[in-house]
Specification:
Blueprint lengths: L4 E7 L6 H17 L8 E6 L6 H11 L3 E6 L5 H13 L4 E4 L10 H10 L4 E6 L7 H16 L8 E8 H8 L8 H8 L3 E6 L13 H15 L2 H29 L7 H33 L7 E5 L2 H6 L1
Parallel strand pairs: 1-2, 1-4, 2-3, 5-7
Antiparallel strand pairs: 3-8, 4-6, 5-6
């Protein structure tokens, strides 16, 4: 039996690009349906992440004009990762596999064919990986590659040059649903699920229209979110720094005693400096130890809802599967 594919597309102020995105995605799904690769009940699921423009109205128009389009409207802006999760969790009970991608058409839609092929070959997760960054500026390429290396160095397992363009099977989505983190970083969480994985390389294009939703400031914030939500290494770094500073204070004490024995010291200077270094080291060490526990509590105990859905646009197929 042909299996149902949902393409999940989070949207925030995407009114300029949505008409072209919907046209290309519709053509891709219809081609896959005609080839017998997926079921004719497959859908494109747009997720409106509290957009301030006409994004939701456009999604409603798509749904009314063609049943291949579905929509999820969040009550407010919750950020890209939460909007993506909302779409995946909505699709989970309606599909056999889901592909997540951005609305800006930078992800190569033709890579969907290879992802579906790998799914049929037995892969539960297929990562879309950029084949190169030749089109990026030096600064963009340097910071992006540095981001992935930093994430892995900090203990967050990520796939190099992979963003959020991926295919996940139904059981992989069910596995994802068991991760209850409020601070989401899906690029690090998905590899934790396990199962058989594959990769598909593609050339990332230019944004079709509109403005990037990830300026440098937001990218830095996103990187910090990823590190702190998946790893306690920064806290351990503080602990290590505390030990280092404390050791330096001991060395300073020995050096001061030697200088005093040689008669080359200023009265009161040694005790003041050693005290400052020793107390500073102990404070950092204490913060590191306490922070180790606070970090774990912080990651586990916050249980705010990750998203709230105002409305779901679906056809009879979707309603029957709810």
């Amino acid at each position: 039996m042909e299996e149902i594919l949902y393409i999940v597309v989070p949207c925030y102020n995407e009114e300029e690009v949505l008409p072209e995105t919907s046209r290309r995605l519709k053509e891709k799904l219809e081609a896959l349906m005609a080839a017998g690769a997926i079921s004719r009940e497959s859908r494109v699921l747009f997720v409106n992440d509290g957009s301030k423009d006409r994004t939701w109205q456009i999604i409603e128009e798509f749904h009314q004009s063609c049943p291949i389009f579905s929509g999820v409207d969040l009550t407010r802006n919750r950020g890209h990762q939460n909007a993506l999760l909302a779409g995946l969790m909505t699709a989970k009970d309606r599909c056999d596999m889901a592909i997540s991608m951005d609305a800006d058409l930078q992800d190569d839609i033709d890579a969907v064919d290879a992802m579906v092929e790998q799914y049929h070959a037995g892969c539960d997760i297929v990562y879309g990986v950029r084949s190169s960054r030749k089109k990026d500026t030096f600064f963009k390429r340097f910071t992006a590659e540095g981001f992935y290396r930093l994430m892995n160095a900090m203990g967050a397992e990520t796939v190099f040059n992979h963003a959020d363009y991926r295919l996940m099977s139904k059981r992989a989505l069910e596995g994802l649903a068991q991760f209850r983190e409020v601070n989401l970083f899906l690029r690090g969480i998905v590899p934790m699920i396990g199962y058989r994985t594959g990769t598909v390389e593609y050339e990332r294009g230019e944004r079709f229209a509109g403005e990037s939703k990830y300026p440098l400031k937001k990218m830095l914030s996103f990187a910090m979110e990823g590190i702190t939500s998946l790893s306690v290494k920064p806290i351990r770094f503080i602990t290590g720094l505390g030990f280092l500073v404390f050791i330096i204070s001991i060395l300073m004490l020995i050096w001061s005693i030697v200088r005093w024995a040689m008669g080359e010291t200023i009265l009161g200077w040694a005790s003041l400096i050693c005290s400052v270094w020793a107390i500073g080291g102990l404070i950092l060490l204490s913060l590191g130890v306490i922070g180790e526990y606070i970090g774990k509590i912080y990651l586990e105990t916050k249980e705010r809802p990750r998203f709230l859905i105002r409305e779901v646009l679906e056809d009879e197929h979707g309603k029957a599967d709810r």
